[in-house]
Design a protein that fits this description.
Length: about 525
Amino acid sequence: MFTYIKNDLPASIVVFFVALPLCLGIALASGAPLFSGVIAGIIGGVVVGALSGSQIGVSGPAAGLAAIVLTAIGTLGGFENFLLAVVLGGIIQIILGFLKAGVIGYYFPSSVIKGMLTGIGIIIILKQIPHFFGYDANPEEDFAFLQMDGENTFSEIIKTFSFISLGATIIAVLGLAIILFWDKVLLKKAKIFTLIQGPLVAVVIGIIYVSFTEGSKAFGISSDHLVSVPVPNDLSSFLGQFNFPNFGAITNTDVWITAFTIALVASLETLLCVEATDKLDPEKRVTPTNRELIAQGSGNILSGLVGGLPITQVIVRSSANIQSGGKTKLVAIVHGLLLLISVVLIPKLLNLIPLSVLASILLVVGYKLAKPSLFKTMYQLGWKQFVPFIVTVLGIVFTDLLIGISLGMGVGIVVILIKSYQNSHFLHMEDISNGKTKFKITLAEEVTFFNKGAILKELDQLPEESFLELDVQKTRYLDNDIVEILEDFSEKARNRNINIKLISEMGIVENPNSFIKFFNLNPKK
């Protein structure tokens, strides 16, 4: 794990700066104490990072659960009752892991996963534009199209131009310039620039700028445009920020319903992120999904026990890790430790970081996820890849993550059905000497009820006084629905004077009396 420490330590610092405002923003969007988001970030980094089999995935509180958390805290009668649901949700996730439910993660089409990454990249860019210009009315990680502040993604951007903060914009532009110059020029000059990352320099410059312009009406940055970490007065007040679940509510049916909801949604988001990060991983390592569910469940149990939000693996932090050169799970663990150390020792220093500088970091992350060249590549792969991809992208941008992925999956399934319809059989026609037209239908290896329509259409269009050769030699699975279609056609064939020759591994049968009896005697497994 320490082999790539020179890569992992700089990457962990970048992930820390990305994670900090997002942890706070999700807690705010969830209607939970701000510190609960930080707790989830710490546990997601240290505990889940250590237990997970993913080398580059980073876990923490997720935006996709914010609406569920907000509703649950109100309906369950308090935050402590909700924490019990988080603990129970974690236990359910561990059970799912032992039941091998992680296999679900392997069934997401590549086009949908790429669409998810691109959609998240676009939404990061769109959502960070207001923060870049110093308009922070909406929380950092409210990624839904319809926002908490009553605006939508695009109306928020338009409204931003009436509330531009000059100081925040200046330091954001400077921070973005530093990051890009570091990435495009300095990284190629000397190894020192790989150890000291551009985002770290941008944040330091931002803190210095805030310190020197404090009190300036023209160029200063007000406190509502800075990071806002809770600042305890002493150890007692720090410990007072932790909350504990109310185990007396364990008989509450609503608590169990919320627990199952958290477990299912958190598991789905995690499995999607695992698939996405594995595709982004330059080393092309494969994450064991069942182990990931167990790791996430363990993290959620601990998070719920000490007052944290639900945890999932998160694509924004994971992609920031990969883009920063992270190689092993040390990045996730160290980023969690940095969150812990910073909120304990230097919360006042953290509260000097401009949100606009952090927005500049996220803009770069978003662009790298949604490069324009990817659209061209997906288009060139054909409509069967491009349509699920673009539907997923648009769904995420104009609704939210889970709805966007669901739409992409729905379109992907339709594409599969169309491909299955088209590829169930091959039809060949030729003339023979006695004047009858010979048709040959070769069935594919697997023929299911999805193919009923296509095969029935071909059979019904065969002309009278013709000859049909039906080849099932390569067919390994033949659905009973198809056998019944063939049985019905054999009756029609006699009435239309169509001769049938059945070619199978068992030999050749002329005008079989019953397809059902034949395939029952010689079943296709």
